[in-house]
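REQUEST FORM: STRUCTURE PREDICTION
Request ID: SP-0412
Submitted by: Lab K.M.
Chain count: 1
Length (residues): 264
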Amino acid sequence: MAKVATSLLRMTNMILVRLRETTVSTVTTSGITAHASLAGTAQTPLYVDTIVRLINDAKTEVEEAYDWLKLQQTISVATSAGAITHTIADSGTMTARQSGDMRSGDTQEYTSARTKVLSVWNLTTDNYLVARPYEWMLKKHNEGVISGESGEPLYFSVGPPGGIRDSLSLKIYPKSDAAYELEVNMINPQEDLHADDDEFLAPYHPIYLRALALAIRERGEDEGEQYSDVMRSYEQALGSAMAYEQEHRHVGLGGGDWIVHGDF
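STATUS: Completed
RESULT:
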């Protein structure tokens, strides 16, 4: 079976070839990467830096277009007695699992404002927590100050970023009366890619076509025929990738949006 994933360096060179530019052996030669700050020292970005930035812009757009299976991830959050708020991140001692490779070679996992929490499973008691609005959670805890209610967590809300690398927070109710292991299932987009061998988790083909279209427009062919042609190819590739994902998601459900009772 052919390898589907591709690296940042390979995609950069794919775009440079389409633009009839010289390929490169690394994307970090200039010292200006997707993560680097230009503050403090004056640096002139190379053309490859522009291409890398456009690739990451395209990656973000494709990631936000659909809940891709490769972006689905589970991070375990350990509660402690009396705790209400927990950071949804791998502190280094908690378990982090993902369908696919670890992102960007990082062995620790974090969340961000783009993370979408799907469910929370209490592994200790084998129960799902029920999602509630953040305002509901605040109201319940304000009321609970008087009663001091605690017990097995039954409800959860997702709070604003903070804590470890501005990861999302998880509020539970009632506050824990003991230690529990909560498995938080989510769609967790990658950070910007910056190293040569960083690989894309979202489908790489629509990312490539969207980045190519952005590069063509950046060169001055704004809304020209070539830009429009590549954009049409991108939209078709994105739609095809979504259709493939739908087929995977509906396996065992009877097909399409209908569920045949008795299939499971």
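NOTES: The chain is about 30% helix and 20% strand.
Reviewed by: T.R.
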